């Protein structure tokens, strides 16, 4: 009876507004809409991305010698098109200069000379905790980017925060169908987007370490 009364209890206007915002923030861009609706959806997704803040866990907690973070060679693998290399190098420089000293895999920098491209891409995916997909017009036209995206999805089908789509200069209708179940970051202001990416990686690593600690206890 109390549960039924709770369900029928009128919701405050602030709660209704929050619920409406959450509904409009779905990142599954399969339905057609006007350009204004697309802008609204992008803004909502950006707002949700900004709301992901690392839990109050110190840098030492994820960087301790016994941390689950060290089970893989890299914290994040950046999947991108070669035409976006300059932007990606800025992102990698930002992440690696953070207090957490994130370990980034950048293909043109970290791939072993003479090794097969397919082998390097698969190894990078398997040996990274998170995967940032910088989805640009160049990404959509690059078969190797799509291959790496599919490898990441095969590695973690339910994602759980490991796959981080970042859209730049791409229409909502062109967002890859394979990623439509995931929230994305829309890169408008570069500095804000870099911070969102950093916060999302940090959030996942904290959850990973917390889960690992719980299992050992």
From TrEMBL:
Q: Where is the composition biased (Low complexity)?
A: 17-41
Question: What is the protein's given name?
Answer: TIRAP protein
Q: Which GO annotations describe the biological process of this protein?
A: positive regulation of canonical NF-kappaB signal transduction; positive regulation of chemokine (C-X-C motif) ligand 2 production; positive regulation of tumor necrosis factor production; toll-like receptor 4 signaling pathway
List the biased-composition ranges (Basic residues): 1-11
Q: Which domain of life is it from?
A: Eukaryota
Region span, Disordered: 1-41
SUPFAM superfamilies noted in UniProt: Toll/Interleukin receptor TIR domain
Q: Where is the TIR domain?
A: 72-201
Can you list the GO cellular component terms from the UniProt entry? Answer: cytoplasm; plasma membrane
The UniProt GO MF terms for this protein read: Toll-like receptor 2 binding; Toll-like receptor 4 binding
Family matches, as Pfam families: TIR_2
Lineage of origin: Eukaryota, Metazoa, Chordata, Craniata, Vertebrata
């Amino acid at each position: 009876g109390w549960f039924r009364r709770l369900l029928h209890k009128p919701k405050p206007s602030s709660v209704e507004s929050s619920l409406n915002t959450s509904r409009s923030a779905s990142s599954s861009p399969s339905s057609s809409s006007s350009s204004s609706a697309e802008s609204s959806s992008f803004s909502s997704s950006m707002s949700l991305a900004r709301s992901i803040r690392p839990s109050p866990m110190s840098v030492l907690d994820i960087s301790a010698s016994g941390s689950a973070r060290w089970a893989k060679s890299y914290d994040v693998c950046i999947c991108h098109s070669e035409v976006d290399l300059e932007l990606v190098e800025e992102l990698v420089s930002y992440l690696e200069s953070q207090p957490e000293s994130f370990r980034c895999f950048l293909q043109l920098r970290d791939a072993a000379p003479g090794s097969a491209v397919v082998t390097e891409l698969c190894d990078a995916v398997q040996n990274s905790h998170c995967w940032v997909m910088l989805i640009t017009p160049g990404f959509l036209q690059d078969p190797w980017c799509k291959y790496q995206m599919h490898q990441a999805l095969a590695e973690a089908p339910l994602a759980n925060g490991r796959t981080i789509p970042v859209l730049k200069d791409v229409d909502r209708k062109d967002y890859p169908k394979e990623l439509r179940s995931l929230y994305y970051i829309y890169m408008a202001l570069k500095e804000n987007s870099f911070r969102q990416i950093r916060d999302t990686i940090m959030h996942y690593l904290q959850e990973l370490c917390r889960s690992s600690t719980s299992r050992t206890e």
